[in-house]
Amino acid sequence: MNTLELLRADRVLTVVRAPEISDARDLCAALVAGGIHVVELTYTTPDLPRHLERAASTAGETGAVVGAGTVQTADQATQAINAGAQFLVTPGQGPEAAAIAEAAHAAGIPVVLGAFTPSEVMTALALGSTAVKVFPAHHLGPKYFKDLNGPFPGVPLIPSGGVNVTNAHDFLAAGALAVSAGTDVVSPADVAAANWPTITTKAKTFCAAL
After folding, report:
1. Where would you find the membrane-spanning parts of this chain (predicted)?
2. What are phi and psi of 40, to 5 degrees?
3. Is 40 annotated as catalytic?
4. Catalytic pick from 133, 143, 146, 202?
5. DSSP E strand stretches across 78-198
6. For the chain, which terminal residue's Cβ has fewer other Cβ atoms within 10 angstroms, N or C?
7. How many CB atoms lie within 10 A of CB 166?
8. Rounded to an integer, what distance in angstroms lies between the CA atom of residue 145 and that of residue 135?
9. Nearest alpha-carbon partner for 158 in 191, 133, 190, 185
10. Which residues of 117-133 are buried (b: 16+ CB within 10 A; e: fewer)?
């Protein structure tokens, strides 16, 4: 099952923003135990390639599909791919968005470009984005996704930023492909302290809300 199919099945991925990750393998195992298989480790965490390599090399044990997020340059894209990232996610469309997309295409992995406006969605699609991340989603809410489905029927949209257990289902009902679970599931403190049972419980709670 590829990443997009997995997202269609699970309807959720988690975005990890933490000052440190004690063990990326154990983090992924905790999330999968809670029902979340797609894990986005971000460049806001220091030494990300090392954590990606650890998570990717143990994916056969954990069952996780691990990618890199907050990718803003072609160099970061290449680093992440070399470390084993199975997908790339950008926060928006900076000057190197096309180069990031090209790096992902060359490696044969999905790329999810960030967007906020309809024009940016169009640009992301033109660059070959596998799905489009709409960030920050909470500013316009689920109705915005229903509106976007008018001109972009069938386009896989993923809300990110401010999605939680109380509104996640509403985003899906409005037409989102899947939602991004952030600190509701993976708080920086829990990740840094290796509170794996807590993360598993929070993942289960989030998935139940879907």
Report:
1. none
2. -110, 110
3. yes
4. 133
5. 88-89, 111-115, 131-134, 157-159, 179-181
6. N
7. 9
8. 12
9. 133
10. eeebbebbbebebbbbb
Residue with tokens 């896989």: 156
Q: Computed from CA positions of residues 19, 49, 43, 186, in that sequence, does the dihedral angle turn out positive or negative?
A: negative
**Separation between Cα atoms, residue 145 and residue 121, nearest integer Å:** 12
Q: Say how many residues make up the chain.
A: 210
Per-residue pLDDT tens for 138-195?
Answer: 988 999 999 999 999 999 999 999 999 999 999 999 999 999 999 999 999 999 999 9
pLDDT tens-digit series, residues 90-123: 999 999 999 999 999 999 999 999 999 999 999 9
Q: CB–CB of 204/32 below 8 Å?
A: no
- The residue with tokens 């991925």 is 13
Q: Which helix (H) or strand (E) holds 61?
A: helix 59-62
* Interhelix angle 97-107/74-82, nearest 10 degrees: 20
Catalytic residue (choose from 5, 20, 40, 102): 40
